[in-house]
Specification:
The protein has about 260 residues and is mostly helical. About 85% of the residues lie in helices and about 0% in strands. It has helices spanning about 1-55, 60-185, 190-200, 200-215, 225-240. InterPro entries: ARPC5_sf, GOLGA, GOLGA_cons_dom.
């Protein structure tokens, strides 16, 4: 607001100086015309003086000489007047140049102020754009945070459900393995079972239980001979029941 008022004041002062310069230019023009007129008169007087000087005889010589002196005096006055006018014109010219420089300086200041105001507007626009971008980014971050929180909540729920399902699946596998073991063991003679179990050490018993709970996977080559024999018996028994028992008891269906 202050810059606008300052610019208006500069504009008013500039107009005032331009008006004064115009007035001075008109006065200078008038002075030049007067000077030219005076010079013309001086030329005429000098011509007349030359004519008078060429006349050396006659009764009018005294009067002409008197007129010549009068004209010479008038000529000197005119010359002094012309000198004064020239000095005045020089002063006006110097003042005009100073005012011109002042006007140019004012115009330069006005241009600088205008450029500063323009840059200020651009900076305000850039600041507003940055603020809007920051607001948009903040809103986007809030949306992302909310989405992440929602996703984490869903993951927790899924993990919870998965844990429950895994626990239930373990129970079902255990129940199914126990059921299959019972069905297998009921078809073996008690003497065979007792002999097989007694032949296993603690490590062998652990391997046997893992073998049962893994769905009767084939033991490795490093397993005990009893466990390998047990696996062959179970496979033979299950193969004999493939047509009559549920497919879950087949080796191909075990997972």
């Amino acid at each position: 607001m202050e810059r606008d008022q300052y610019a208006e004041n500069l504009k008013g002062e500039s107009a005032m100086w331009q008006q004064r310069v115009q007035q001075m230019a008109e006065q200078l023009h008038t002075l030049k015309e007067e000077k030219e007129h005076r010079e013309s008169q001086v030329q005429e007087l000098e011509t007349s003086l030359a004519e008078l000087r060429s006349q050396s005889d006659g009764e009018k010589l005294g009067a002409e000489r008197q007129d010549n002196e009068s004209l010479s005096h008038l000529n000197r006055e005119q010359e002094e007047r012309l000198l004064e006018l020239e000095r005045a014109a020089e002063r006006w010219s110097e003042q005009t140049e100073e005012r011109k420089q002042i006007l140019e300086s004012m115009q330069s200041d006005r241009t600088t102020i205008s450029r500063a105001l323009s840059q200020n507007r651009e900076l305000k626009e850039q600041l507003a754009e940055l603020q809007n971008g920051f607001v948009r980014l903040t809103n986007k971050n809030m949306e992302i945070t909310s989405a992440l929180q929602s996703e984490q909540h869903v993951k927790k729920e899924l993990a919870k459900k998965l844990g429950e399902l895994q626990e239930r699946l373990g129970e079902l596998k255990e129940d199914r393995a126990q059921g299959v073991v019972l069905k297998v063991l009921t078809n073996f003679k008690s003497s065979e079972i007792e002999q097989a179990v007694q032949s296993l050490d603690r490590n062998g018993i652990d391997l046997l239980m893992k073998y049962i709970y893994k769905g009767f996977e084939k033991p490795t080559e490093n397993s005990s001979a009893v466990l390998l024999q047990w696996h062959e018996k179970v496979c033979d028994y299950i193969a004999s029941l493939q047509a009559a028992i549920h497919p879950e008891f087949t080796l191909a269906g075990q997972t």
